[in-house]
Structure formats: structure tokens, C-alpha cells
Amino acid sequence: MKKTGCGIDHLQAFLKTLKRSEKFGVLCHPSSVDKNFDHLIKIVDENAKLVSLFGPQHGIDCETQANMIEWKDKRDSKGRPVYSLYGEGRAPTDESIRDLDWMIIDLFDVGARLYTYIYTMNYMLEACGRNKVKVLICDRPNPLGGSFVEGNLLNKKYRSFVGLYEIPMCHGMTIAELARFFCSQMDRPPELKVLKLRNWTRSLDFSRTGLVWTLPSPNMPSFSTARIFPGMVFLEGTSLSEGRGTTRPFELVGAPFFNWDAIENLYREQSKKLGIVPTKFHRQSFIPTFDKLQGQTCSGALQIPAKPRLFQPVRHAALLLWIFRNIYGDAWTWAKPPYEYEYEKLPIDILSGDAKLRECVDSQASLKALFKSWQEDEKKFKSLRKPYLLY
Fold this sequence. Notes:
The protein is about 30% helix and about 10% strand. It has eleven helices and ten strands.
């Protein structure tokens, strides 16, 4: 299998077809690099007129931590403005882009509905549409593959910065395909150009692309993290630890009072009933150095999918939450707002896209019925997304 080529690998050739007088802005972060690890900013600087820079959550240099830790506008080493799209606002101002001819977007998305970079892109697309700025998307592969779709469709009543559109948790789309879909929902979409992937098919997950993993965000250190993230991120909406403050965030899960013998026994029983390909649990206690349960010893486990390509992270996490409630009752709680600038609805509800998961866990209702409703949503979305697919 040939190594996958990302859109940025063809950027220099594209820029040479344009007038040198055209003004460019870039929306990027440290993972915005080509096959030689040359950064987007360097490539544009050497081949066009770069006048402004924009960065998403975690900072343009990817240095800030979890949700609602903001960063401020600044200037780069050449005196150009660097605008924060995770500070006083999440959308670019008209003033910041009005004089541009092009906006180039290259963001490493991990394939989960709630990863905020795709909504930063959405707000940029809207602003460029209003101001008649052309947009160039440098495409990147969806790490989970282009065929894998899992989870319920977002209920519009639960829209937030971790979910703006009716898409499932695992959407199986590249960031350029998402841009095409988002533009279809806009009254004034921008003129959109895509630098497509090469040597990538929908069946390929990141492990088969030949690409090197670079951290798209501080707590996404590896592909194995990204594989489990779309489900274990639900724990951000609880008092339990999802492993933040350790070297294996989202892969580790724990709490001071957990008994893994009891958890694993019920997991094996229920995963068999539900037809879920089981996950292995390697016992691993940990002490978070920051975030929830900081400084406390957690009885934990490292989660290892037995058959990675058949792993369903959202169903896996739903089952774990159901088990944690079954065994431990009210010893753990749902986290309270705010979460990603939502001050009223519970974090678990905006993370999961509606209240059904929480209600199922709390009432110990049938997960089989919940998963059946997800199956219907997954089928619906696969049909909905077809016009916007590029591969």
C-alpha cells in the first residue's frame, strides 16, 4: 500500500498558479505539516503573501489544555496578527478577514463529532462566505477511516460548540468532506476549493496510511488514543477519571473506589448479550497530576480493543457507564455545567448529543434498545452524507 498523500503536499504547486499579489490567511496548528514536516505557514510564506494567522482550541501552537482554557490574540515573529478562535469568541471577526483573497485551512481532525476544530472551521467558512473570501481546504484522512460511522445523530436542541450539526459521533468523513457538508447548510457559503488526498480509500484507518502521528491536541498523543476517544470522552461529563493528567488520556479509566473484578465480570456478560466485540482491561492504577481526582490514587485500567478494526468506541463507553451506575450507584455523579460554553445543559448531554444515554444509564434501561435507535441513525447518516464524499 502506497503512503497516503495529504492535501498540503500539493499546496506549493497550487500556490504557483495564483497571482503573487493575492493576500492569504491560514487557519492551522502544529499538525499542519506536509510529508517533509514543513509547516503550512512556511510553505505559504515562501510562495504567497501571508498576512494573517488563525488558530483553534489549544492554541495555534497547541500549548493550552482542556475545554474553556482560552488563549489570546498575539503577533508572530514577523509582526503579523495571530487571531485566537478560542478566546473572547469562537468565530473570526469580519474585520480580521475582510481584506483577504484566500483562507487556507489545514486542521487535523480525529473523526469525532465533538472535536471542536471542525466547528472552528465551520465559523471560518461562514465568515469567508459573508466577506467573499475564497477558501482552500488541505484535506487529511479521517483517522478512524472513511467507512466507520457510529452513534446517534445530534438532537438540535443540544447544539453547542461540541456539536452544531446532525451528525453521529463517528462520522467517517474527512475534514474537506465535512466542509462541503457544512457549506450546504449555509445561506452564503464561500467559494470552496479542496486539495484532495492521494492513495487513500475509505477502508483505511490511520494505522494503514503510512503517515506519522503528530499531536492534534495535547491529550491526543497517539492513534490508539483517537480510536477510543469518541466514547471515553463521555467521562468528561462525569466525576470519574478519563485519564487526563496521565500519559494515556482516554485509554485509562478509573476511580478510587473501582473494583475491576466486578466491572470486568459484568462487562463480559453484557458485551456478549449486546454483541459488542470485547475490550481487554489491563489493571493499571494511576494518580492524575491535574484535572479530576488530582493527586488521588485511582483504581484504573488501560483499555485495549481485542479486535481494533471491529471496535465500537461509543457503544463500549455506553456499556461502561451503564456498568459503573449498576455497581456503584450514586458513588459517582454527572458533571455540572459549564462545559464548552454551555451553561445550562449537562455536559454529558451535549457530549452525547441528547439526553437518552444519560437517562438509559440512570434508569438501567435496555442498552439494546438504545443501540437499535443508533443503528437507525447510522443508516440515515450514511445516506445523507453521500453527496459530499470525495473518495
